[in-house]
Specification:
The protein has two domains: 10-142 and 180-249, Rossmann fold, CATH 3.40.50; 143-179, no CATH class. The chain is built from ten helices and seven strands. It has helices spanning 10-31, 49-54, 66-78, 119-128, 143-152, 156-164, 182-190, 211-216, 220-232, 235-238, and strands at residues 37-41, 58-63, 85-89, 104-110, 130-141, 195-202, 243-249. A seven-stranded mixed beta sheet has the order 3-2-1-4-5-7-6, with helices on both faces. Helix 1 (10-31) packs across helix 9 (220-232) and helix 5 (143-152) runs antiparallel to helix 6. The radius of gyration is 18 Å and the shape is globular. The chain starts with 9 loop residues before the first helix and ends with a strand. The protein binds S-adenosylmethionine. Keywords: Methyltransferase, S-adenosyl-L-methionine, Transferase. It comes from Streptomyces melanogenes. One of its GO terms (biological process) is methylation.
Length: 252
């Protein structure tokens, strides 16, 4: 997906996109169907839904925000995939009021668990929406990345508060209601009976590097993307990543 018009945006999405694309390719091969049914819970304005539709898949986005769904519709039209993207207003905690149980080859839940009242129920619903052997793509804010970012910005008390806070929040002004460790996220997935696959650390360095180093040095963005990709797979870096990605597969 790296967007040539917004090169720095690729730093936020490249690792997840590569993992997701591989998982979808595997489902295409396993099912023998070129067009998969994909559900993007909390898919917002389509950062992932639209590129997934561009691969030829049918994507349903469930999101509570009418503004996000409006932006999604416009973006899908601009990308020429309006016929493969369906936006539905709804909540991951009331998922089956709006979509079919067991109807999807892949379910994305990216940047949503942080905001829901009951993350375990959110993951259970995402898994219940999957067909047998379907792929779960879960992305959520990492605790360690936030601690490191606050500390490097000189907010040492906030960093310590996040470290000791059960929800991983650095203070009352923290816009993110909840963060996770890799263990917490994988436990949430494993508790549903889904087989936990690869775990990746996302944005290990990108948020800590001064923008000027990436924007002005020739080749720096490309080198940083490669560094992010290499570090993402190493468990040692999971504890300092801004986000954590967990891939799961629903057992047959
Ligand atoms: C940080 S954005 C992530 C958007 C998109 N998934 C992405 O990765 O670019 C969080 C999205 O979750 C949606 N959201 C918040 N609470 C939700 C809930 N309970 N169920 C489903 N979506 C929710 C918001 O409207 C927003 O679009």
């Amino acid at each position: 997906m790296p967007d040539p018009m917004r090169p720095r945006a690729s730093l936020r999405t490249a690792v997840v996109w590569e993992v997701l694309k591989d998982a979808l390719d595997r489902r295409v091969k396993a099912t023998g169907r070129e067009a998969l049914d994909v559900l993007d819970t909390g898919g917002g304005s389509g950062n992932f839904a639209v590129p997934v539709a561009r691969l030829g898949h049918r994507v349903t986005v469930v999101d509570p925000s009418p503004n996000a769904l409006f932006a999604l519709e416009r973006r899908a039209a601009e990308a020429g995939v309006a016929d493969r993207v369906r936006g539905v207003q709804g909540d991951v905690l009331g998922l089956f009021d709006v979509v079919e149980r067991g109807g999807y080859d892949a379910v994305l839940c990216h940047g949503v668990l942080e905001y829901v009242e009951d993350p375990a129920e959110g993951v259970r619903n995402a898994v219940d929406a999957l067909r047998s052997e379907g792929a779960l793509s879960l992305l959520a804010a990492g605790l360690g990345g936030a601690v490191l970012a606050r500390a490097l910005a000189g907010h040492f008390t906030e960093a310590r508060r996040a470290l000791g806070d059960p929800a991983g929040r650095w203070g009352d002004g923290d816009p993110v209601p909840r963060r996770f460790t890799a263990e917490q996220l994988t436990e949430l997935v494993a508790a549903t009976g889904v087989e936990v696959g690869a775990v990746h650390g996302v944005r290990v360095f990108a948020d800590l590097v001064p923008g000027v180093l990436v924007d002005t040095e020739p080749g720096a963005l490309d080198a940083l993307l490669k560094l992010e990709a290499a570090a993402a797979e190493l468990p040692a870096f999971h504890s300092v990543a801004t986000q954590l990605h967990v891939l799961g597969e629903k057992r047959a």
